[in-house]
Write a structure and sequence with these properties.
28 helices; 63% helix; six-stranded mixed sheet; calcium ion binding; EF-hand domain-containing protein; Leu-rich_rpt_typical-subtyp; single chain; mainly alpha; globular; EF_Hand_1_Ca_BS
């Protein structure tokens, strides 16, 4: 119910598609009053819920044409069919069927269906197709299926393993979320592949791989359990798992090769037929496509030249150099404006061109001067103009810039998920910043203008705000992307410790009073004794706590308050006590702690960054497989070829040959160094001291 209510509040009731997959829905009747409000609803996805039956009357969903109810827990197919018969416009149906008889039952009772389980329904040759399918099944002697019972059995197995771990509530929610997302991804990929018309052995192999991947989720959870309880057994299970996975992969390849060899003669025959003239009917289309491709490639080259010109100007302005604008550049700009008006697909071309997305790292080095863009105030000026004072680009306020950073972070998370689902390599944060600007604005001039704004804001606020400083370091690959989540935890820890302190000091205060005191301190000052208590609780290392307190000492201030007349002695005594207490702005207190964490993390990664940059010749934060193997060798952590291959299977499973700096840090933070119980990144860091 809450899901639909949020959809209505956010998007209204004019939607034509509603996604309710994996929402643990057990009774659709409760959702029906809200679904009826969507008058234009044409497609409804209820995949992966816990429905045991459908409402008897769905006739009020008059415009619903496509319905997906796969992977539910229906007990009576006849009841489901009778309910579906009440949908007046239904023509596309996705439903899990166990036999051919159930498929015939659907087709007979729902004659208006055009598509069933992504397959067109043809009444005329239906009997012939059934006989062919039956003969194929009988010939193979094997029918591989993946039913709802299989998913339920795997879910029970997953719950059993989860009970062994005995995690806290938050960790259990996280594990359950990972499990649900994994199942969702695997089932979506399976549906997509099954929709393709492939030979039976390919279909069976696809289903087997899906089953294998589903149980792989449980296997990984089981291994992580022993990682916490028995390191040696965990290593044995990991090696056993990898060998088992490799055997399954080899077996799959063998099946593919055997079937392919059986089809070589038929394929060669088709090739000969194609060579004799059957493909010549598409010759005109091929020539037209080739011509369009050449035109796009030509335009792409022009865009590359334009980008280089803009970037050179931007770099020179950033260095404070004087720029001579000649007539050639001006004429080129005029021609580019005309081209932009005639090209509708500029943003797509920019997105496809990697050179348009990659920032030159020199643009965001902190030691360089402020950037600016070119301003032509007078179109009647001479073509040869010596620009001495660059134009000031738009200045963002700190709040505007932090909102933009959050927007880029959120876009990066979604884009990373899309890349993972599509088996594509991840982008670095600097690459994605340009991807984000390209998707949001499209025009190259706007993209460069906003890039300049971001660069200026980084230098303007980098020393004053920790969130900005962390973003800049992530862009320059001086810090991994995951570190920003750690900083959020530090902020939350500070607030929790402050709340604990206030509760201990004022045990008779109500929750509302404590919250009011928290809000007051968050927006203004906290006392020195409160700050010192938080620091000492957070940092068990005395050297760290003393170092932070020493930095805070310069920011403590002595508030001055006048004691007013007509006060009780107790009130006057309280004011005098507060007057004697040193205070510090909460924002400064928090920044000092966050800056300490950031510098400690940067020091922690310093040796790894040094090795990574030696191999990352173009300094774009990306290395390939050969460079990754060399990185392992240079780090000298004792990993063998088997370990390196296991690392590659995790960090680059689809052999994209693009491994980012943040991916390496994340992997080495999770993997233990051979022969030790410490993460690889920790071993590297300690060896540098």
């Amino acid at each position: 119910m809450e899901v639909l209510q949020k959809i209505i509040q956010k998007s209204g009731t004019n939607l034509s598609l509603i996604e309710l997959e994996f929402k643990q829905i057990e009774n659709l009747q409760e959702f029906l009053p809200l679904l009826i409000q969507f008058k234009n609803l044409k497609e409804l996805n209820l995949h992966g819920n816990r429905l045991r039956q459908l409402p008897d009357d769905l006739s009020q969903l008059k415009s619903l044409e496509t319905l997906d109810i796969t992977n539910n827990m229906f007990e009576n197919l006849q009841q489901v069919v009778q309910s579906l018969k009440t949908l007046p416009s239904l023509n596309h149906l996705e439903i899990a069927l166990k036999s051919k008889d159930e498929e015939e039952l659907i087709i007979e009772n729902l004659p208006q269906l055009v598509m069933l389980n992504q397959q067109p329904i043809k009444i005329d040759d239906q009997s012939e197709q059934q006989s062919d399918l039956q003969s194929e099944r009988s010939a193979s002697g094997l029918e591989i299926t993946l039913q709802q019972e299989d998913l339920e059995q795997m879910a029970l197995l997953h719950d059993s393993i989860k009970e062994l771990r005995k995690e806290d509530e938050e960790s259990e929610k996280q594990i359950s979320s990972i499990f649900e997302n994994s199942v969702k991804t695997i089932m979506k990929e399976l549906q997509t592949k099954l929709a393709l018309k492939t030979p039976e052995h390919i279909t069976n192999l696809t289903i087997l791989k899906a089953k294998f991947n589903l149980y792989e989720v449980c296997f990984q959870l089981f291994i992580r359990y022993f990682k916490l309880t028995d390191k040696k057994l965990e290593q044995i299970l990991t090696k056993l798992h990898d060998q088992h996975q490799q055997i399954f992969t080899d077996m799959s390849n063998v099946i593919m090769n055997v079937k392919d060899n059986q089809s070589i003669q038929s394929i060669q025959k088709k090739i000969q037929e194609a060579n004799t003239g059957q493909l010549y009917q598409d010759k005109g289309t091929e020539q037209r496509l080739r011509q369009e491709l050449q035109e796009l490639q030509t335009y792409n080259r022009e865009i590359e030249q334009e980008n280089k010109a803009y970037l050179e100007l931007l770099i020179k302005f950033g260095k404070g150099e004087k720029i001579q604008l000649n007539s050639t550049i001006n004429n080129s700009n005029n021609q580019q404006k005309t081209d932009l008006q005639n090209i509708d697909n500029l943003s797509q071309l920019n997105y496809q061109n990697n050179n348009d997305k990659i920032i030159a790292l020199n643009l965001i080095k902190p030691q360089q001067t402020q950037y600016a863009s070119i301003q032509n105030k007078n179109n009647q000026q001479q073509s040869n103009v010596l620009v001495q004072t660059p134009q000031l680009v738009k200045m963002l306020t700190l709040k505007q810039f932090k909102d933009l950073i959050i927007e880029i972070y959120e876009s990066k998370l979604k884009f990373d998920q899309k890349c993972s689902d599509s088996h594509l390599p991840r982008e670095t944060m600097e690459q994605h910043m340009y991807t984000f600007l390209n998707q949001k604005y499209g025009l190259k001039s706007l993209i460069l203008e906003w890039a300049s704004c971001i660069i200026n804001a980084l230098k303007r606020y980098g020393n004053d705000d920790n969130d900005v400083a962390v973003f800049g370091k992530i862009l320059r690959n001086e810090c991994d992307e995951e570190f920003r989540f750690f900083q959020v935890k530090v902020k939350n820890t500070i607030l929790e410790l402050l709340k604990m302190y206030l509760r201990g000091k004022f045990p008779l205060k109500t929750n509302a009073d404590i919250k009011e005191m928290m809000d007051q301190r968050f927006s203004s000052f906290i006392f020195q004794e409160e700050a010192e208590d938080i620091i000492k609780y957070m940092y068990n290392n005395q050297d760290d706590s003393e170092l932070i307190l020493k930095k805070l000492k310069q920011y403590f201030i002595q508030p001055t308050k006048q004691v007013e007349k007509r006060m009780t002695r107790e009130e006057q005594f309280q004011i005098v006590n507060e007057k004697e207490k040193s205070k510090i702005e909460f924002s400064i207190f928090q920044k000092v702690i966050l800056d300490f964490q950031m510098k400690s993390h940067e020091k922690y990664l310093s040796k790894f960054i040094q090795h990574f940059r030696q191999l990352d010749q173009d300094q774009n934060g990306i290395i390939d497989e050969n460079e990754f193997r060399q990185l392992i060798t240079d780090l000298n952590i004792g990993s063998n070829d088997f370990d390196i291959q296991r690392y590659l299977n995790k960090i680059d499973p689809y052999n994209n040959q693009q491994i980012t700096f943040s991916q390496c840090v994340q992997l080495f933070s999770q993997e233990q160094a051979p022969g030790t119980n410490a993460p690889i990144i920790q071993k590297i860091s300690f060896e540098s001291f």
